[in-house]
Design a protein that fits this description.
Helices cover 50% and strands 2% of the residues. The chain is built from six helices and two strands; from the N terminus they run ααββαααα. It has a two-stranded antiparallel ribbon. Strand 1 (40-41) and strand 2 (47-48) form a beta hairpin. The longest helix has 34 residues, at 88-121. The N and C termini lie far apart (63 Å).
Length: 160
């Protein structure tokens, strides 16, 4: 069931915020309960949100989509003003802080994509038995985890 659309100057109900953001009302309540957005309570205890909650939720959803934790998101949102919708300059400051981390993540994903192609290209499908990249499972000497995907190379294995 669609909720009634509020006028520009109105505060929004949980349902209106949820409809506008394309999320469940329980998610709106969760974000509110965990301090990612804020609400006022009516005399009857119902939550009411300023329109800027939509912008904050949009940011939360975008940040989650690229793998940011709620604690990282909260830290970022806490750096923004709570008494008014953030200005373009304030959002730019936040995005500048995230740009380097997003670039690192993009590079790591591209590297993962490229290394997965190399890794399964020989047909053995096993780093443990791979005679080219990991003969006799020597990558174990470099440490735990997927060594090649973490940045080690076949030459690191040869030198170990």
């Amino acid at each position: 069931m669609k909720h009634q659309v509020a006028h520009k100057d109105d505060v929004l109900t949980v349902g209106q915020v949820a409809d506008r953001c394309g999320i469940a009302t329980s998610a709106v309540r969760y974000y509110d309960d965990h301090g990612l957005i804020s609400s006022q309570r009516t005399p009857g205890g119902q939550r009411r949100f300023e329109r800027e909650a939509i912008r904050r939720i949009s940011f939360i959803l975008a940040a989650q989509r690229v793998g940011r934790s709620l604690s990282e998101i909260r830290e970022t949102l806490d750096a923004l003003p709570h008494d008014h919708a953030p200005s373009q300059a304030e959002w730019t400051l936040v995005s500048t802080d995230w740009r380097e981390r997003l670039d690192e993540q993009i590079n790591a994903l591209a590297d993962l994509r490229d290394r997965l192609d190399e890794c399964i290209g020989c047909g053995c499908l096993s780093l443990e038995r791979c005679a080219i990249y990991n003969p006799d499972d020597r990558a174990v000497t470099l440490g735990a985890g997927p060594r090649f995907l973490l940045g080690d190379s076949a030459s690191d294995v040869a030198n170990a």
